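Appendix B, Record 12. Input sequence as logged:
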Amino acid sequence: MARVALENLTKIFTGLRGETIHAVNNASLTVEDKELLVLVGPSACGKTTTLRLIAGLDEATRGTISIDGHVVNRTPAKDRDVAMVFQNGALYPHMSARENMAFGLKLRGCPREEIDKRVREATAILDLDCCLDRKPEALSGGQRQRVALGRALVRRPSLFLFDEPLSSLDPQMRPRLRAEIRRLHSRFAATMLYVTHDQVEAMSLGNRIAVMKEGAIQQVAEPMCLYHQPANLFVAGFIGSPPMNFFRGSLVSEGNGLLFQEQLGNGADPARRMALRLEEAMALRGRGFTGKSVVLGIRPENMQRHLAEAPSEWRVEAITESIEPLGPETYLHLATAAHSFVARLLATDSGGANQKVSLLFDMSRAHLFDPKTGLAI
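Logged structural output:
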């Protein structure tokens, strides 16, 4: 397998009007040997361009790409020992599934017996026996993607690159293919770099996740570390479904502690202003922001209906704007004096629309961010 290292990687395109576009902007990232690392971010953030640079399909403007310690910037794509699985499978329409999987090996002059052996192995792993003689037009979306996976597997490359391979599949098919990829990674102990815009895929697949925005790497961490300890506002808002709620306000001293006070807009009712006491560890981190603007972040699942014994300084009064019943749980869309937010509650705790609701915010799981830099405090 292979260890991949990107150092200050940059790819610049020229737009239609002559403007400079940094598709990848000074990105540094390491994919360890035998690791499955997921690169996640919104559309047009540079994920696919990064894969294409590693594969040798595009040329870097600046920076280096190393595979197993060897800089490969000037190495042709065919010599990089990399297999790439594309979003649409990219199968040859005039070839059968068997021929599609074998074609790359034929081009490399692999003996017929070895080709047949590898195709049989991939077919058994991916459960493709029933459709080997069918052409792509006669295959389902899931079968086409499994053939594309098989084509990559038979090559036995040092590095697998996946460019949103599940995005065009039905929602019911995606969990099965995700499990297939996890199983392949475990079985072959392969080095894999997987690109997606779906944070559910990222959380369920990756040993680590790299979050990307506007061509730059925002944070690289294990999935639950990324979820519980986001480095900045973008990561906090991108990872999680529903996303983290954000409240703008300021920190004020009260006794030995700090209070977060909601920032009111024009026409807001001061009597409904949200005020929450910071948990002790957070208050220590936020002491330098006393009297300054901050952003308070809290996830929808870190709220619950008001409990009588709960501390009053963690209670929030809000109005229910709408309700999303989802079976065992319900999303409540609520409003304070100046902010709208979402609470994720048990169905039995949901209540009704246009009602006043008392919620308990678990401030031990809240986050503070600097609104100027976006960084976590």
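The chain has a mean pLDDT of 91.
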